[in-house]
Amino acid sequence: MIKRIKHCLENLIDRSFQNKTSKAEENLLNDFAFTEYQKSKWNDALMGNSDEGSQNIYEGIQLRIGEKKTFNPYLKYMAAASILFLVGLGFFYKPNIAAEKQLTFKTSDVPKSIKLSDGSKIYLAANSSFQYPAQFNGGERKVSLLKGNAFFAVAKDKKHPFIIQSGNIKTKVLGTSFHIRLSKSKCEVMVVTGKVNVSAKGQSVDLVPNEEALFTGEKLMKLPIDKSLLINWYTTDITLNQATLKQVIIILQYKYGVAFECKNEDVLTMPVTVFIEKNASLDSVLKQINYITNLKFNIYDEIVKVN
Amino acid sequence: MKNPEIFEKAYTEYWKKLNAFSYTMTQDKDLAQHIVQDVFIDLWERKDDLNIIAIESYLFRAVKNQVFKHYQNNRFDKTVLEDKFEDYIIDNFTSIDPEVMDLLYSLLDRLPEKRKEVLLMYKFQDMSIDQIASELGISKQTVKNQISSGLKQLREGLKDLVWLAPYVILHQNF
């Protein structure tokens, strides 16, 4: 018997995409959409400021077609160039550094932030390392995340795209905020505001807020973000009320750039309430958690183990 | 489309209407902007040139298709569009193609006789609530109640309605 699984609209749309609709049905869909189209009016309260919206969209378009226009002709060389880059690092890179005055910013056990010459702010997690020029010259603002993870609040400057190299992947933006996490096997880029283009090995994805790109095993994928990751670990004190231990660990991984090893996975579902001060050291946070949970978290270099 | 001038013109002229449309259909600000962006990028990458007059209907169709595609992929709250579709059908009962209407009439037939009568007068004969009340000799409140429960029932029916055309065609073949 016919049983309802889908709404009639879904049914109709599915069949329309398979070219299985009758003419009358297709007209119905079309007329429905067209009526809505004609009725649609801009509403500032719901859709935001229209100038901002237009600019946002237009930037997104330029980012893509601008890139296509200039990058297409030498896409082939890019793969070759990245290999050259690795091979020739010792020989060619040094003079370059001298010319551009590259600075390295490193953190050990406490996260820190810096402001770049263009006004962009970088919040670097603990155990991370970041390289940037003392002064931005030329058409692009180029920096690199060498290790660990960071949150970027990039100053708007349409004429000078901001490009971050992290491992194999390249993140290109005009002005926005997002998060990059680099580890041996993978690299993630998560977007909080604005639009971001991420490319790696000839693959490219565009991200909007609440999306992330994951590069692992030579493949670049686009995924939705787990909301708990969007907590502002980089600027504020964090209060986690009745969060699971797993969520707490995820945030600590970001804030301190450490990995966790857990022998007994069952404890991860344990509810905990913790307060993490903005400048707290990992050690003091773990002491607090140990006290609450009666577990024993210990730091071994960049790995935290729990028994 | 490798004509920056026409492209710019089309963007300035239509982005707002298209964005309002994609927002109305999805109620998701970011997704709505994303759809418009993708559609214009596709326009830019088209091999052939469109003239500016044909562009609007091209852009409308492109946004519509994107909205439907995201609907299929559950990228926004689907009930938004489904409610709109139900409203559209109920509001346009009289002007919808008879081929599709047969199905809708079969839904109407499932309503209790009185309710169906009231609804038909209200929707098809464009009678006011006052007129229906005096015509049938019932109170205005009863008319209102009949209409609202009739529409509700119709709406429920629409939700459950599996689009029957393939079934109909099959039926005709045998």
CATH topology of the largest domain in chain A: Jelly Rolls
Query: C-alpha Rg of chain B, in Å?
Result: 22 Å
Quaternary class? heterodimer
CATH class descriptor name of the largest domain in chain A = Mainly Beta
What best-fitting shape of chain B do the alpha-carbon axes yield? elongated
Sketch the topology of chain A as an H/E string, one letter per element: HHHHHHEEEEEEEEEEEEEEHEEHEE
Choose one word for the global shape of chain A. Answer: globular
Strand content of chain A: 25-35%
Euclidean distance between termini CA atoms of chain A: 56 Å
Question: Biggest interface: chains and residue counts?
Answer: A-B, 52 and 51 residues
Instruction: Give the name of the CATH architecture of the largest domain in chain B.
Output: Orthogonal Bundle
Unreliable stretches covering 5 or more consecutive residues of chain A: 69-99
Give the overall average pLDDT of chain A: 76
Overall pLDDT of chain B, averaged? 82
Relative helix content of chain B: over 70%
Radius of gyration of chain A, whole Å: 24 Å
